[in-house]
Specification:
six-stranded parallel beta sheet; 3 domains; Dihydrodipicolinate Reductase, domain 2; alpha/beta; eleven-stranded mixed beta sheet; homodimer; Rossmann fold; Alpha-Beta Plaits
Chain lengths: 438, 438
């Protein structure tokens, strides 16, 4: 019998505690699966005194994450503290430099320092596993890194942030505003007091940067991701989407184009019949378009202590079994640089909602301006004005005009809308939402 | 640089040819991913003379699968001939006995001989990988074997046969009969000339037996699977399902119960809002309920040359990287025996469609008979009789009565329906479909 794998865990919050519990509860199965035991031998946490429903007898308390990472008795350093930089970063570096393996659930850190850490892991022969960093228990890292090892990837996209999907789902189902649903999400603990990181798309962007690296063999680079959040989405957009056969989701999309890898996060109209459109509430999902094969979609919990711990323990089990996958599936030296794709070159269909000053001439003006940019219109819907309100105002109230275009360039859409604004037939800013076909 | 992995492929049909093509096309990526090249050095096929759009220069032709499997120059024997027994079986045994690794897409063979072959692989140190055997490119084997290594599984279920799902989808969407849709499926090449293996559930049962083994640490045993096909499903059932908020799918379900592992394949009512209900046409999907975590669903192509080849090449890549996972995730000596669960103990909700002789007394009789068996009714719907037809007949035409029960035992349902039949208030055989909640 091989000696047990000795694990040190930094961070005993919800996830850390669940990992300790799971390793204990599943110890017999883990031994059978790995051909050796898995044992937590040391931990550290901000407060040792804090009450925890954990049996930590016989487990050493390290005085710092760095001390734990360098501890001669541990084989694997499990980083569950969070934070893109120190102390997590130097602790992980210390572990990797000593040839130890590292497991982390820290997307911010992998998105920022992933390539550098992967190079360290490679140089010293340790593993760097981070399945829990994207989509928690959904095995998306393993699928891209191993399960599709022999298949070229054309596109990977998904719902990577449960908070945004929860808000969009409630807005759609109950006709509520963004602000109302955000407040509810905060009350229920699905959104932070400062929700910007989630609702402005940055959380999704970090996860997308990681998936893009795995899918396309590029250096993980969150700065190469175009980011747009969901706060501009109105209930009217969701209603219009429904009528037109779409649903609005905050997607992270990484796609191979003629000019390179396009990485973008933005509210997106997806066909209602697509797998991704069915994903409701806090659930996450990722779709992978492999070359020559129909899409593969993985759906599941994107967060939560138990789901995250499940992925962390699977990562540890791989190490116990002796598996040392390259962190991004290929040697770091072979990973290519990516740059931010200019969105003006993005090609696709567009949804646009404009507020027309009056019904008669506006549609014709809009159609003309689009035609000038060679944009073909798939559908154009004009809402009936609210006659009562208009009469009360003594003048026509603005009327929503909703357009769906066939594939065109973002540049062309912006030029056409700019012209429409100069024609003064609309009020306010046009709402524009990109369409992603499956 | 490590020497390239030398691969021998038995079977050059659609999948085999695609594997050869993919290994060639992806050779640079595979080298980067695996740290060594992957090279097809020998093949065999029923006819060497057959025209193939393949570049096989420099590739040796073995005179038989057995000769290929025993070939001293190959590291991995890839079996793509099919058939549950010889010649595939003895060739695989020959390869494993020589310490070579084996990759196969052969579900019938793994379902029948999986445990025995896994023991051979274990004893001689080779891998036995079969990702393509269930759900083609959907990484379900890897997910159960590695991705959820640290999580107890409560239930695994899915749509594992594209033919059946195609037929049920068309029946539902177009109101067609089973026979009409089967004929179309055969015309389009989705169903065999002898469709029994697919539509009677045996294909699903083989795949389920494999998934159950991985999920629950049992010896794969297709004889332990209760099997019922889709030929009894009528358009009326699909219409009723829609009205009641369900959809009918042929599911394979393996679930941990108090008395053991229940494995069953049968038409199933699933809630329309569930991920599995959204899966249409030939697409496959598997949902895994891990202990304490929300369900994870994997959706994708369950068949097709490119999708199957994708999984085969990923399996080869794992071997090239040096990974030797236990074929069923645990040592064969630790796998438990399973027996067929008696369906009369199955507990769940039931859909029943009865043809009532006349409307007035029947509902009361049925309700009474169900109450005697302590079965609670969730809903009971009586269709309006077709007055015209009834008048033309000179007597009342039978009227469909549709029942949904709360969870009860199969035994109780059968006893109640037996009593209803003896009451002579219905004609014909009652239709009974089990309900699976998510």
């Amino acid at each position: 019998m091989v000696a047990p794998l000795k694990v040190g865990i930094a961070g005993l919050g919800t996830v850390g505690a669940e990992v300790v519990r799971l390793i204990d509860q599943q110890s017999r199965v883990l031994s059978a699966r790995c051909g050796r035991g898995v044992r937590v031998v040391a931990v550290c946490a901000r407060s040792k005194a804090k009450k925890r429903a954990l049996d930590l007898r016989g487990v050493e308390w390290a005085r710092s994450p760095l001390a734990l990472a360098s501890h001669p008795d541990i084989d694997v350093f499990v980083e569950l503290m969070g934070g893109a930089d120190d102390p997590a970063l130097s602790a992980i570096e210390a572990a990797l430099t000593r040839g130890k393996s590292v497991v982390t659930a820290n997307k911010a850190l992998i998105a920022k320092h992933g390539s550098k850490l992967a190079a360290l892991a490679e140089a010293h022969g340790g593993a760097l596993n981070y399945e829990a960093a994207v989509g928690a228990a959904i095995p998306i890292i393993k699928t891209l890194r191993e399960g599709l090892a022999g298949t070229g990837i054309q596109r990977v996209y998904g719902i990577l942030n449960g908070t945004c999907n929860y808000i969009l789902t409630r807005m759609e189902q109950e006709g509520l505003s963004f602000a109302e649903c955000l407040k509810d999400a905060q009350r229920l603990g699905y959104a932070e007091a400062n929700p910007s990181f989630d609702v402005d798309g940055h959380d999704t962007a970090q996860k997308l940067a990681i998936l893009a690296s795995l899918a396309f063999g590029t250096k993980v680079n969150q700065k190469a991701v175009y980011v747009e959040g969901i706060s501009s989405i109105a209930p009217e957009d969701l209603r219009a989407a429904e009528e037109l056969g779409y649903r609005v989701k905050l997607l992270g999309v990484a796609v191979k184009t003629e000019t390179g890898i396009e990485q973008r996060v933005h509210p997106t109209m997806v066909p209602r019949t697509s797998s991704i459109a069915q994903v409701m509430g806090v659930t996450n999902a990722v779709t992978i378009d492999g070359e020559g094969i129909p899409p593969i979609t993985l759906v599941g919990p994107g967060a939560g202590g138990a789901a995250t711990a499940s992925a962390v323990v699977a990562d540890i089990a791989d190490i116990a079994r002796g598996v040392r996958a390259l962190p991004f599936g290929r040697p770091v030296a072979k990973l290519k640089q990516t740059t931010k794709a200019p969105m003006k070159h993005h090609a696709g269909g567009y949804y646009t909602r404009l507020m027309a000053r009056d019904l008669a001439g506006t549609a014709a003006t809009i159609a003309t301006r689009l035609a000038e940019q060679k944009i073909s219109i798939e559908s154009i819907v004009q809402r009936h004005p609210d006659g009562g309100a208009a009469a009360a105002n003594g003048r026509s109230a603005p009327v929503p005009v909703i357009l769906i275009t066939y594939a065109t360039s973002e540049d062309a859409v912006h030029r056409a809308l700019q012209a429409v604004r100069q024609d003064k037939v609309i009020t306010g800013r046009p709402q524009v939402i990109r369409i992603e076909k499956n």
